[in-house]
Specification:
18 helices, binds 5'-O-[(L-methionyl)-sulphamoyl]adenosine, alpha/beta
């Protein structure tokens, strides 16, 4: 059984509506997925929702709802959101699903039986908002805690702890020996620094039912539910278990009745996450996997955070970008394009409406849109939509861009892929200006030259569709159908120059990115 490329996103807390940050991460994962598939690699893409814990329970309570009903209603909104973004995920996990809960409980039982947990009393500070215990080290110089922790209470509580300390040196060695485990390098250095300069605190993996009951019951002690992060991280293996993945099934006897789907997924190839949850993924998760006897994911890819107009996005101040509003006004591909083009995977970014508008006008409407529109309109007007015989004037430029795009996509460098594609768009627009086919058309003696130019432009549009497919799939499909091709531009090998057949080839032409006043 061949292993598939297995890619995941963080699963979002279902305590409100999706925003730009959630959308950005899912689009990154979708583009990587589509690129792999286009390059011929079978790929499994998992995304979903994190439904337990205090944040969700409080959000439900604030609306006077029971948590499950509240989650069910919001889950429908998030699933619809994934469709709007045109995500091609293979499964959608909800942590309240029995298939997930059963695996979490099986893992807890097994790790407990193997002695990875101990019970202890904790006295100290606790942030309810972040669901985390705080220590003296978390205080600011003036003695207060950062407002991002919300209300901080004093607590005395008995809980189960997962021994992390014993694995600290092993993890540090692993990170040092596997330079690509955390990407980009600055984030890897952050984790290495954390492991070198601190003694890891053991991880509290339970919450007493008396304080929080919206969680997965701990199988060996009815007084507790599972800490939401222990629950959530397990989604990356519970869904493979539900699909009868051989590696996970061999390590965890979950008792799930699965149908052998022939899928081999674990280890994950890529966990795509935001910078704020790096420690959970690069410290806690590897140690959990080691305890379970499972291999580690191949890479954790860490993206930065978006601000709007230079400020943190916040529901309370109303400073948010609503992806659905942008999509309904400008189209999903304009949204996908902007977030990928504006922000490389790694640094933080800043959304401004003016910046969005500027890229829409220059790169989408005047760049790509204008190129495709004038190329196909001229083919229709001057040759009645018949593709002339092959000409290779733009072949070298095209092949160079195809190679650069391929290598960027293979390295998950999505912004670089767009830059490579747009260099070809610019080159082709210059070609139109230099060859001036509208002038050639007026002179019957220049008919052969006009044929050459029209072939090069039509073929270049076709190649662009193939390159664009992972990034802006709707636009890629439109280019194909405007060319009268009834297949989908989803195979990268079709970007080879010269595949456009001579003969009738035109559909109905319309602006890809209409200009707006
Ligand atoms: N539920 C946890 C993740 C569990 S994964 C096993 C969580 N959820 S979240 O809804 O708060 O965040 C989900 C993802 O969205 C995270 O990767 C986070 O970094 C990302 N983003 C949330 N706000 C963001 C921005 N403003 N910008 C970019 N990404 C951001 O954490």
């Amino acid at each position: 059984m061949d292993k598939r490329f297995y890619i995941t996103t963080a699963i979002d807390y279902v305590n409100g509506q999706p925003h730009l940050g959630h959308a950005y991460e899912k689009i990154i994962a979708d583009v990587i997925t589509r690129a792999r598939r286009s390059l011929g690699q079978e790929t499994f893409f998992l995304t979903g929702l994190d439904e337990h814990g205090q944040k969700v329970q409080q959000a439900a309570l604030a609306e006077g709802r029971d948590p499950q009903g509240y989650c069910d209603d919001l889950a429908a909104v998030w699933v619809a959101f994934a469709k709007k973004l045109e995500l091609t995920n293979d499964d959608f996990v909800r942590t309240t699903q029995p298939r997930h809960k059963q695996v979490v409980q099986a893992i807890l039982s097994r790790l407990h039986a193997q002695g990875h947990f101990y019970k202890a009393i904790y006295r100290g500070f606790y942030s309810t908002k972040e669901e985390t215990f705080l220590t003296e080290k978390d205080r600011r110089p003036d003695g207060t805690f950062d407002p991002s922790y919300g209300e901080v209470i004093e607590l005395e509580e008995e809980n189960y702890y997962f021994n992390l300390k014993d694995h600290q040196q092993w993890l540090l060695d692993y990170l040092e020996q596997n330079p690509s485990f955390v990407h980009p390098e600055s984030r890897r250095n952050e984790v290495i620094g954390l492991l070198k300069n601190n003694v890891l605190e053991d991880l509290c993996i339970t919450r007493p039912v008396s304080r929080l009951n919206w969680g997965i019951p701990v199988p060996f002690d009815p007084g507790y539910v599972t800490y939401v992060w222990f629950d959530a991280l397990v989604n990356y293996v519970s869904i493979p278990a539900a699909h009868a993945d051989p590696a996970v099934s061999a390590a965890i006897d979950s008792g799930l009745r699965t149908q052998d789907s022939g899928l081999s997924l674990w280890p994950a190839d890529l966990h795509v996450i935001g910078k704020d949850i790096l420690k959970f993924h690069a410290v806690f998760w590897p140690i959990m996997l080691k305890a379970m006897g499972l291999p580690l994911p191949r890479q954790i890819l860490v993206h930065g955070w978006w601000q709007k107009d230079g400020q943190k996005m916040s529901k309370t101040t109303g400073n948010v970008v609503d992806p659905l509003a942008v999509i309904s006004e400008w189209g999903v591909d304009a949204f996908r394009f902007y977030v990928l083009r504006e922000l490389d995977i790694g640094p933080d970014g800043n959304w401004t409406d003016a910046g969005f508008r500027a890229r829409y006008d220059a790169e989408l409407a005047n760049g790509l849109g204008n190129l495709v529109n004038r190329s196909l309109s001229m083919l229709k007007r001057y040759r009645n939509g018949d593709v002339p015989s092959r000409s290779d004037e733009l072949a070298a430029a095209s092949e160079a861009a195809v190679a650069a795009t391929r290598s960027s996509l293979e390295r998950n460098q999505l912004q670089a892929a767009l830059t490579a594609i747009w260099s070809l768009v610019t080159r082709a627009n210059q070609y139109v200006d230099h060859t001036a086919p509208f002038k050639l058309a007026k002179d019957p003696a220049k008919a052969v030259r006009l044929d050459e130019v029209l072939y090069n432009l039509a073929e270049l549009c076709r190649v662009l569709a193939v390159l664009l497919w992972p990034l802006v799939p709707g636009t890629a499909s439109k280019i194909y159908s405007q060319l009268g091709l009834n297949s989908t531009p989803d195979k990268f090998s079709d970007a080879q120059w010269g595949r456009l057949q001579t003969g009738p080839s035109i559909g109905s032409i319309a602006a890809l990115f209409p200009k707006k006043p």
